[in-house]
């Protein structure tokens, strides 16, 4: 198995001793073993990975050096709104929360509002993810009614079963 002579085995061992990331350490060990002349199946057996994985690591090392052994950046969908737009939504929702007569109470309403103001169409689960990201949580009932009278409730409990 061909390994580019970018660093010697001794240099790679020194780098490996300083590593705190287990994945990178395993990959460095594979490169060192390959430099010593071991085959991909032998290295795979020693490190408990597949031989194809070893080949992939060596290929990345040959192309990109040590940087190629680090974890690659993961993809993902881009956000539909900018941070500034999300903060505008948060301000709007905070203002609406103080209005007892109106305001946005459902995800569907917020979905329509965002579509009207920003021209972005979210799915309903996407709206709930956005709300969670902005720090909002599902509404929960109060443990006690705010107008409850504890003394009256205690008196009721004492006299209810005596009838």
Automatic annotation (TrEMBL):
Q: Name one Pfam family in it.
A: HTH_28
| Insertion element IS150 protein InsJ-like helix-turn-helix domain ranges (all copies) | 27-76
Domain Winged helix-turn helix: from-to ranges:
106-159
How is this protein named in the record? Uncharacterized protein
**Upper classification of the organism:** unclassified sequences, metagenomes, ecological metagenomes
């Amino acid at each position: 198995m061909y390994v580019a002579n970018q660093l010697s085995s001794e240099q790679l061992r020194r780098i490996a001793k300083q590593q705190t990331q287990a994945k990178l350490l395993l990959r460095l060990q594979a490169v060192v073993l390959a430099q010593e002349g071991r085959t991909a199946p032998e290295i795979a057996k020693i490190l408990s990975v597949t031989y194809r994985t070893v080949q992939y690591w060596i290929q990345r090392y040959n192309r990109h050096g040590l940087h190629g052994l680090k974890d690659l950046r993961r993809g993902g969908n881009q956000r539909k709104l900018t941070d500034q737009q999300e903060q505008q939504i948060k301000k709007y929702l905070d203002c609406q929360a103080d209005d007892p007569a109106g305001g946005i109470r459902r995800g569907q309403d917020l979905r329509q509002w965002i579509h009207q103001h920003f021209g972005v169409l979210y799915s309903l689960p996407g709206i709930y993810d956005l709300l969670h990201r902005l720090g909002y949580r599902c509404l929960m009932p109060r443990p006690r009614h705010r107008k409850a009278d504890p003394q009256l409730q205690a008196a009721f409990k004492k006299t209810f079963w005596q009838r």
